[in-house]
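WARN no homologs supplied; continuing
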Amino acid sequence: MRLVLVRRAEIPDAGDGLVPVRDSKAPSGPVLSLPADAFTAFVSGVKGGSFDTV
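OK structure emitted
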């Protein structure tokens, strides 16, 4: 199993409702911007164990 750590990118909030994330191993790498509600649902799923069998 390969684990990937994703972290919220340290980019100022643009007020556009998007959450910037990037691979923590490549802090200067590309940023993926996700809708805030989708990111919140993803984090809730991780905390709730929804991805434990993936």
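Helices lie at 36-47.
OK
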